[in-house]
Amino acid sequence: MERVAPKKARVPLPNVIAVRVANLFDKDFLLARDPVEFFTEAHYDGFPAILVRLPAVTARELRPLITEAWRCQAPKDLDPKEKAPRRRTTR
């Protein structure tokens, strides 16, 4: 969704998705790395998320972005990168 005019309703952008990032440093890094692929708008100021232009990225580029976005929000026990808790066995 994009606000085309101030105080007007947002307009859907079907070729753009919002993706959560780990922190504002990562957001700034991605925005500086490729402003054609990634952008933001005032609505996301101060929030760790970027907007991705889908026609500008390949599936190969998009996969790690979505995976990391999931890791930012998923409970730690679901993340395979986190060490699995030891299970106690009773005998």
| Largest sheet descriptor | 3 strands, antiparallel
β-strand percent reads: 5-15%
Low-confidence stretches: none
Helix content: 25-40%
Quantity of strands, as a count:
3
Please provide the ordered H/E string of secondary-structure elements. Answer: EHEEH
Please give the order of strands in the largest beta sheet.
1-3-2
Q: What is the overall pLDDT average?
A: 85
| Integer-rounded radius of gyration | 17 Å
**Number of DSSP helical runs:** 2
- Please, what is the oligomeric state? single chain
* Distance separating the two termini: 57 Å
Give the helix/strand class: alpha+beta
Shape: globular
Explain the overall architecture:
- The model has no long low-confidence stretch (mean pLDDT 85).
- This protein has 2 helices and 3 strands.
- The chain has helices at residues 24-33, 59-73, and strands at residues 16-20, 38-39, 49-53.
- The longest helix is centred in the last third of the chain and has 15 residues, at 59-73.
- Strands 1-3-2 form a 3-stranded antiparallel sheet.
Question: Which labels suit this protein?
Answer:
alpha+beta, 3 strands, globular
